[in-house]
């Protein structure tokens, strides 16, 4: 079963770039378990209002929870249910 995640970001955000490295590590370690949709918040005024001061933000679609920056790899694993993996 694949877990769907949404990564809210925007171009030129250095914190988003750091978070993206963590997500790439996740996909390298668990290539078939996660699907990540990347959404640039500038495409929606509603997304800018919701996430503008919080990006990067990762949303677990199934759990309807989000993880805002700052987070490290261990925090990311805990957020997606892998605990101390």
Describe this structure in words.
- The chain contains three helices and four strands; from the N terminus they run βαβαββα.
- The mean pLDDT is 93.
- The protein has a single domain (3-79), classed as Glutaredoxin (3-Layer(aba) Sandwich), CATH 3.40.30.10.
- It starts with a strand and ends in a 6-residue tail after the last helix.
- It has helices spanning 14-29, 45-51, 73-79, and strands spanning 3-9, 34-40, 57-60, 65-68.
- It is α+β, with helices and mostly antiparallel strands and 85 residues long.
- β3 (57-60) and β4 (65-68) form a beta hairpin.
- A four-stranded mixed sheet has the order 2-1-3-4, with helices on one face.
- Helix content is 35%, strand content 26%.
Keywords:
about 80 residues; Glutaredoxin; 4-stranded mixed β-sheet; alpha+beta; about 35% helix
The string of secondary-structure elements, in order, is EHEHEEH
Strand order of the largest sheet: 2-1-3-4
CATH class: Alpha Beta
Please tell me how large the radius of gyration is. Answer: 12 Å
| Intertermini distance | 18 Å
The CATH topology, please? Glutaredoxin
Oligomerization: single chain
| Domain unit count | 1
Please state the overall shape, judged from the principal axes of the Cα atoms. globular
Give the overall pLDDT as a whole number: 93
Task: Output the CATH homologous superfamily.
Answer: Glutaredoxin
Strand residue content:
25-35%
Poorly predicted regions are none
């Amino acid at each position: 079963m694949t877990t769907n995640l949404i990564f809210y970001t925007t171009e030129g955000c250095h914190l988003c770039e750091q978070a993206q490295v963590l997500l790439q590590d996740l996909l390298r370690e668990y290539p078939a378990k996660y699907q990540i949709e990347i959404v640039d918040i500038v495409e929606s005024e509603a997304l800018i209002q919701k996430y503008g001061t919080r990006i990067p933000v990762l949303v677990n679609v199934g759990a309807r929870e989000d993880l805002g920056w700052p987070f490290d790899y261990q925090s990311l694993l805990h957020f997606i249910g892998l605990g101390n993996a």
